[in-house]
Amino acid sequence: MGLPMARRLAGAFPVAVFDIAAERRALAVEHGATEAATPADAARDADVVVLAVRDQAQVDGALFGESGAAQTLKAGAVVVLTSTVGPEAARSTAAALAERGKDVRLVDAPVSGGPTRAGNGDLLIVVGAEPAALEVARPVLDRLASTLTVIGDKPGDGQALKAINQLLAGVHIAAAAEAVALARGLGLDPQTVIDSLSQGAAGSFMFADRGPRMAQAYGDEADAVEVRSRLDIFVKDMGIVTGIAKNAHVPVPLASAAEQLYLLGERAGLAARDDSSIVTVLSPRGEDR
Amino acid sequence: MGLPMARRLAGAFPVAVFDIAAERRALAVEHGATEAATPADAARDADVVVLAVRDQAQVDGALFGESGAAQTLKAGAVVVLTSTVGPEAARSTAAALAERGKDVRLVDAPVSGGPTRAGNGDLLIVVGAEPAALEVARPVLDRLASTLTVIGDKPGDGQALKAINQLLAGVHIAAAAEAVALARGLGLDPQTVIDSLSQGAAGSFMFADRGPRMAQAYGDEADAVEVRSRLDIFVKDMGIVTGIAKNAHVPVPLASAAEQLYLLGERAGLAARDDSSIVTVLSPRGEDR
């Protein structure tokens, strides 16, 4: 997600980029960004630092590690956290930035939509941030988002809403997989089932979007299923969901079942495959049905 | 569902009605139907017998019980089974009709949409039936359905597709309940969460439809939540789903978790409440959040 976001931002602002992969830095430079040698180098003089990383460990490394951005962040700067790391990680990151005493604030702004929409400024971004910090970040967020929802006024609120988004998305993908697997098991054509049901009371965005790729997994084009969103993203995100639900003492039996299913998918070797491939855990390819 | 369907049909065809409740027979008569004293009486001379009952036991009673319709059904008549009873029940009913030797065939045609849409001829009907039997029933089905999907050519196929519909619908309602309960647990306003997420990748028909009633369960209007679809319908339907999935050896961990949740709701006294009330099992009313 970082590269298309950097590309999109470089069309409107001066952008210095750091990525651990040199070839991705080079691709950003081709689109008008300046290359930085370290996160600290990238953050120097910046009003807004945008973080797009995988998990909390990478957040900590990019901000507080050797050559981390926190070393050079100037007073009044804001850090925009676009990753899904959970409310607790957002709050502790905000606290760690505040402890440095340089008036650097965190804008908790996890994004949804995938790389293509990131490159087009068409992301859904849900924000928890102090109004003054949000004001600094807003031009950057507006450049990236087609829909910006400010759900609360403190870091962690954006992550909380994003977690609920992922609960629904992850459960709906798993439900679509059960529907397609059961269709096969009952001798019905999966694509016909999807066409019949996806616009009615059984419909979801995920059933309409992932369903056809699940059906494709059993056809001649099975090996051509494009990886639009990796399965192991849901191993991470459903882990966040069930963790925060447990901390809040809210039972989430379906999210828990979905988490186990994604873990099974990861164990079955599907971590880097499209998340729609989870259907093959329930109904393996090559079986008669 | 039987009454609005009878009312809708009486606007186009001569209809004889039987219901175990005399006041419902009377309501149908007010809308132009003729009252019958027994199922056998209602089926006499009929080309098409429409069955709208709760479960397989009621199907057996209405067709094969004392004064059941099978006693009077004429050769060439078709029985349209609009209830959700599962593929096996549809197949055994078709076989039991065939054994009578009078050339009476079953049109397996479970419906979705609820009473209001039934009265307006706006149902989704999914059909499994021999083409010749379907031909006899088609004017009746066309009068009731805005969407008619013929998924297969034998009784049981309609039930199979309806079961997949109910798998998705039941899981999506339970997922919406988890989302609303988690929103409360995290201190977010449920209705704001629904408004933020229901049109994006987390969206489902059920989240948009049941979500607001779930949020309403915690407000001043909690006791005014209208019963549009009873919770115990999903106890029955998720039971059908997990039963046929087990018979087909297809794992459905989310549908199983949803089934348990609806059973918990029934045990909590919610059987006759709106199915959206399932959220109160996860996050009881009156708690701080």
Automatic annotation (TrEMBL), chains A, B:
Organism domain of life: Bacteria
Alphabetically ordered keywords of this record: NAD, Oxidoreductase
InterPro entries documented for this protein: 6-PGluconate_DH-like_C_sf, 6PGD_dom2, 6PGDH_NADP-bd, HIBADH-like_NADP-bd, HIBADH-related, NAD(P)-bd_dom_sf
UniProt-recorded Gene Ontology molecular function terms: NAD binding; NADP binding; oxidoreductase activity
Active site (catalytic residues): K162
UniProt cross-references to Pfam families, sorted A to Z: NAD_binding_11, NAD_binding_2
Domain 3-hydroxyisobutyrate dehydrogenase-like NAD-binding: 156-282
Span of domain 6-phosphogluconate dehydrogenase NADP-binding: 1-152
Similarity comment text for this entry: Belongs to the HIBADH-related family.
Name used for this protein in its record: 6-phosphogluconate dehydrogenase, NAD-binding protein
Species, as recorded: Streptomyces bingchenggensis (strain BCW-1)
